[in-house]
Amino acid sequence: MPPSLPELAFDNRFAQLPEALYIRHQPAPVSAPELMAFNAPLGHQLGLDRELLGDDVLKTWLSGNALAKGSEPLAAAYAGHQFGQWSGTLGDGRAVLLGEINASDGQHWDIQLKGSGPTPFSRGGDGRAWLGPVIREYLLSNAMVHYGVPSTLGLAIVTTGDYVLREQGPLPGAVLTRVAKSHIRVGTFEYLAAKRDADSMKALIDHLVDYHYPELQQAENKTLSLLNAVIEKQAALIAKWQSLGFIHGVMNTDNASLVGDTIDYGPCAFMDEFDRNKVFSSIDQQGRYAYNNQPGMGHWNMAMLAQAVLPLLSDDETQAISFAQAAIDNFPKHYMSAYISNMREKFGLIDKVQDDDMTLMEDFLDLMHADSADFTLCFRALGNEQSDSLFDLFNDKEGITSWFARWAERLEESPNLEKMNQVNPAVIPRNHWVEATIQSAVNGDWTLFGEFEEALRSPYSANAKFSQPPAPENRVQATFCGT
Ligand code: AMP
Ligand code: MG
Fold first, then answer.
1. d(CA 384, CA 399)
2. Mean pLDDT in runs of 10 for the chain (483 residues)?
3. Ligand 2 centroid vs 264 CA: distance in angstroms?
4. 84: CA distance to ligand 1 center in Å?
5. Which of 160, 286, 330, 399 has the largest count of CB atoms under 10 Å?
6. Which residue, 315, 341, 367, sits at the end of a domain?
7. Ligand having the closest approach to the CA of 255
8. Do the Cβ atoms of 80 and 90 come closer than 8 Å?
9. CA distance 161 to 334
């Protein structure tokens, strides 16, 4: 007998939006669900404590095998540009929004199952996910919180007991419970724009303003104010990624969140050796989403959003275009200001601003790039003021020595080292550890997963095991499309 699920505080605001935006749809059952991971602090924050609900309830609920009372599950509709090309309708092809929990932290949170079976948007796909990408998303998205990067979060991993067939062969299936303030994407707007459904778009804008940007409620032009706010958030988000060496890998417009979260952890990764042109995704042949291109791609995605909302910016088309252009043109300014402020913190240059600070910082990145130095170790060594261990990371000893002297001189007697170590993590979800964790879990051993999850919860403390870059034979060259 499956356990009967408790009544949870659902308040399904997205499900009250016009029906153009979703198809009501239930998750498909799985054979033998097991709760393999649960983010206890997040569960507690949401009022979904593991101890209170119990594993039987959680695995039944979060596999999609039973619905909690009050849940109104749906697959959301959206479209998108993938790798710069218009793809038309995409939608939740392997995810179901169970509803929004009115949580004990006072926030509403989307509870979404990813890998929960085919939906009307599956376009021939199986609607499932295998354990590898589920673990990757869980670890990376939950690590983001500790770096101050807005992100969707992973609440749970439930293995399904079913196999999914991928290029590599049959692989163990899993369902990720993804939690987010909202799953609305640029692609959601593009979907309505393509259908010329202005009424639904107006309702969507009101929804976003009321629940996610309430400070804009009195704005004279809500659409324009929302566009500006989203652009600023997106710029700040990408500035955070850059300051951590995070490469999203698939910055399509359907993976650009309207609330400024990092969303959709597919072929993403953190860099070990710094390379401005780094690409991990095996499907990104042209390097469109390389590290250095991320700000430009974010800018492009915002242009797609502006284009989608154009008819609502003004009744006068010329005026609408000029509003849109001005909003888009602000992206680089917002990005640079957020980026510089992040980088100042990383370099300890927070006491005062000097004209050549940017040059000093970029020169360091140039040296790192030229020598393929480890991004995370370099900043950590800098914050520990260990010139020897810093110099060890470079081949160009002369270059780094003279740079270090410039930096030390610039810092004078207020080095802010302690603060640097609070923004420069020692532990990032390094690719080789993510891969090793996936391998162990696939083989039924979740010990490494537990250790890694724990280390990622306090990433500013040095960790003998997880701080280390890969040995040459452990280096992961590519990540795969997150299906
Ligand atoms: P993504 O690359 O994860 O952003 O997904 C792009 C689109 O493909 C979305 O509409 C997904 O729902 C859909 N999709 C990805 N994998 C699958 C799958 N295994 N089955 C069905 N749809 C999928
Ligand atoms: Mg996606």
1. 20
2. 82 97 98 98 96 97 96 98 98 98 94 98 97 98 98 98 96 98 98 98 98 98 98 98 98 98 96 96 93 98 98 98 98 98 94 90 98 97 86 97 94 77 96 97 98 98 95 82 58
3. 5
4. 17
5. 160
6. 341
7. 2
8. yes
9. 47
Please identify, among 286, 320, 341, the residue that sits at the C-terminal boundary of a domain.
341
Instruction: Tell me the three state secondary structure of residue 391.
Output: helix
Q: Do 219 and 254 share a domain, yes or no?
A: yes
Catalytic residue list? 254
Same domain (yes/no): 267, 131: no
Counting ligands in written order, which one lies closest to the CA of residue 267? 1
pTM: predicted TM-score of the whole model, two decimal places? 0.97
Centre of ligand 1 to C-alpha 86, Å, is 15
d(CA 50, CA 403): 51
Same domain, 159 and 303: no
Closest CA to 344 of 243, 426, 427: 243
Q: Whose CA is nearest to atom 23 of ligand 1?
A: 93
Write out pLDDT tens, residues 13-24. Answer: 999 999 999 999
Pairing status of strand 129-130 against strand 153-166: unpaired
> Could you tell me if residue 203 is inside a domain?
yes
Full residue range of the structural domain in which residue 266 is found:
186-341
Q: Give residue ranges with CB within 6 A of ligand 1.
A: 90-94, 121-122, 125-128, 250, 254-255, 264, 266, 482-483
Asked if residue 194 and residue 78 are part of one domain, the reply reads: no
Residue 174 lies in a domain: yes
Question: How many domains, the chain?
Answer: 2
Residues near 470 by Cβ (< 8 Å), separated by ≥ 6?
A: 272, 430, 431, 432, 476
- Give SS3 for 113: strand
